[in-house]
Amino acid sequence: MTLDLNCDLGEGEPIARTRALMRAITSANVACGGHAGNTSTMESCVRLCRQFGVNLGAHPGPWSRADFGRKIGSITPDELELLLVHQVSALERIASAQRVRLHHVKLHGALYHASDNEPALARRYLEVMKRWWPACIVYARAGGRVVGAAYRAGVKAWPEVFGDRAYREDGTLVPRDEPGAIIRNSATMVARIRLMRESGEVETISGHRLCLSGRTICVHSDTANSVALVRRIRKVMDDGK
């Protein structure tokens, strides 16, 4: 199986970094106006996806730019549905004007985790995808609720493993404000991918091994030295070593 390499983009990073990352990744998750992004950044990202043959994905997030969509008080299934229709449709319309097809949807930040933690949100998320974007793939946390529910609901999903985030023993991510949460070392990331390929496992922050196999690997654009990290990972993925 060929692994996919994805990155969250259009989130306010310099356009030179966006372009450099687009040259190395296979899928882009484009912010569509919630936690970040606007029509201009969406248009630029769509253009770059078309130029470099990158899969275009929508990256809807909470309407909370002050905290970059990483915190959320509460959201109802109805509110989640409206948010998705607003944001994903906006990117889809911009993409359609450039004759680029929407390939996938990946929730951002607090929405990503809330949908995994709350069954009602997971159900509504997948119902919305099945109704409005049945051809799109859902990118969601490997081993999480959304991936399992998607399989049962007949929605195509790719389990996601994070190259630049540490894992806890239960398969969830170490919160960003805790020591060791962000991985910045390319050798550590490469070792993670090789271990996952060889045994379907990921090493946790405490050194234990967790059964966790992904179809797509994420590296965030705001991780320090992200361009070099992504290039290194892509080379390893292409070489199969």
Protein described:
The chain is α/β, with parallel strands linked by helices and 241 residues long. It has a single domain, classed as TIM Barrel (Alpha-Beta Barrel), CATH 3.20.20.370. 43% of the residues lie in helices and 17% in strands. The chain is built from 8 helices and 9 strands. It has helices at residues 15-22, 39-52, 77-97, 109-117, 119-132, 145-153, 186-199, 226-239; strands at residues 4-9, 27-31, 55-59, 102-105, 137-141, 157-162, 201-203, 209-211, 216-218. The strands form 2 sheets. A 7-stranded parallel barrel has the order 1-2-3-4-5-6-9, surrounded by 5 helices. A two-stranded antiparallel sheet has the order 7-8. The longest helix has 21 residues, at 77-97. The radius of gyration is 17 Å and the shape is globular.
Quaternary organisation = single chain
Tell me, briefly, the overall form.
globular
Q: What is the CATH level 1 assignment?
A: Alpha Beta
Specify the helix fraction band. 40-55%
Q: What's the number of domains?
A: 1
Order the strands across the largest sheet as they lie in space.
1-2-3-4-5-6-9
Secondary structure class reads: alpha/beta
Quote the CATH topology. TIM Barrel
Spell out the helices and strands N to C. Answer: EHEHEHEHHEHEHEEEH
Find the count of extended strands (DSSP E, 2+ residues): 9
Note poorly predicted spans.
Answer: none
Task: Please render the helix and strand layout as text.
Layout: E1 4-9, H1 15-22, E2 27-31, H2 39-52, E3 55-59, H3 77-97, E4 102-105, H4 109-117, H5 119-132, E5 137-141, H6 145-153, E6 157-162, H7 186-199, E7 201-203, E8 209-211, E9 216-218, H8 226-239
Parallel strand pairs: 1-2, 1-9, 2-3, 3-4, 4-5, 5-6, 6-9
Antiparallel strand pairs: 7-8
Helix pairs in contact: 1-2, 2-3, 3-5, 4-5, 5-6, 7-8
